[in-house]
Amino acid sequence: MTSTVKVTWWGHSTAWIEDSGVRLLTDPVLRDRVAHLRRMRGPTPKLPGDPDAVLVSHLHADHLDVASLRRLPDRVALIVPAGSRPFLRRRMGTAAASRAVELAPGEEFRLDAITVRAVPAAHDGGRGPWSRHRAMAIGYTVHGEANTWFAGDTGLFDGMADLGPLDLALVPVGGWGPTLGLGHLDPVRAAEAVRLAAPRYAVPVHFGTFWPAGLVFRRGMFHEPGRRFVEHVATAAPGTRVTELQPGETLTVDPAP
Predict the structure, then answer these.
(1) CB-hemisphere CA count at 13 Å for 253?
(2) For residue 1, what pLDDT is reported?
(3) Full set of structural domains in the chain with CATH
(4) Best CA proximity match to 140, nearest among 63, 202, 72, 79
(5) pTM, entire model
(6) Burial status of residue 19 (CB atoms within 10 A of its CB: 0-12, 13-18, 19 or more)
């Protein structure tokens, strides 16, 4: 019997994925301020319950938010990039580090009825320019009733065409400031990623949520990446159905024909 697959976007890279009765939470930022960044759009996330596992793509503070992880019960599995355990031990203690599952690209973790596979990401995985904590940056594919790609934070990389077949892709299309550095996708490059990966559905993420405190932003620059991504995918990958969710909205993925 086919179960319903749903994804709820809570802003930035935080998404709630339900597949085969398993509940996953990606890069959770569950509060309204992280360092110098403030939530500028959407509600504070209100999760429908506790996730079974958290997928962390890399150590950057807007993806691995220690305060948000501490809000979750200890029984929640922490799936993290290879090399993350020393940082978790220092910031969250030995217990958190010991229950973390480290994955490198190509490695898998089985959780009830789904398989989580680590895939590459073209992004700097260090905690920050002055931090000694470094780990690789990765994305994940989740395989249950649907095949879902959570890209994390990435630029284009060789092998995107080999990620499929995919039913759903959560694709970063922007950032949290007025410019994007290396290792990011803007709407044009994100549309190319969709063309290569060829998912049936795509949802833009990593834009229009957080902004540096005190910085006056142009609303177009802040909100437009999602709309522009929809437009570019319509040309680059017309076989993919794109849905621009608002923070807190849910998409249901139809079973593959």
Answers:
(1) 29
(2) 42
(3) 5-248 (3.60.15.10)
(4) 79
(5) 0.94
(6) buried
